[in-house]
Amino acid sequence: MDQPQEVINRWVAIKTIxxxxxxxxxxxxxxxxxxxxxxxxxRKKALTRTFETTIREYRKxxxxxxxxxxxxxxxxxxxxxxxxxxxxxxxxxxxxxxxWKRNLSVRVMLLIIHERDMSKVASGKxxxxxxxxxxxxxxLKSSMIQAVxxxxxxxxxxxxxxxxxxxxxxxxxxxxxxxxxxxxDKVGIKSAKETIEExxxxxxxxxxILPKLLLEASTLPxxxxxxxxxxxxxxxxxxxxxxxxPS
Length: 247
Description:
By secondary structure, the protein is mostly helical. Helices cover 87% and strands 0% of the residues.
């Protein structure tokens, strides 16, 4: 039965796309993988240097009286530990040729972002103590608050994606294997990647502000303020020991 040329052309185009789509996707992923590996090299080196420097400088402060500086380093190291994990699987999450490994890497990244509890190291109380003890400027306080809010926003988006799949698909705790499969299969990779990218943007801003916070906390007035603020606590401790000592 004869068909109009327009219909024939459409049919040929559909068949051609279906035939070559897997090859086109592989080429696209390979190109993206090579591009990301190249672009992420500098970031990886910078992250490694920052990580090692943070550990080295934080150790030097362990027995010091500069409590605000120690808290800032603790915040930095807390985030850097997770940041290195995310960096290690980022390329696989976006470009691995195996769809299952891409999916798994995305789920692990979402879980890391979701489980990073900022309140453990950067609660309102902790940040207030840092600002007061180190005499941090109002402008820097405002920038820090905005940066923390940006990370919190990305975490909230992650929570929405992980509501169902968190326990069932990461640790495979659910006894219903088909449910596990269906939850894994319906993970919105595009939405998840957008959330991960949003987190990285917020994280980049946050890490840009931390060095400024450390610089302000390292000025002579800030160090003197930290040192003097630690003295009342020591005196109180000695007084408590005296009161508790047997006569």
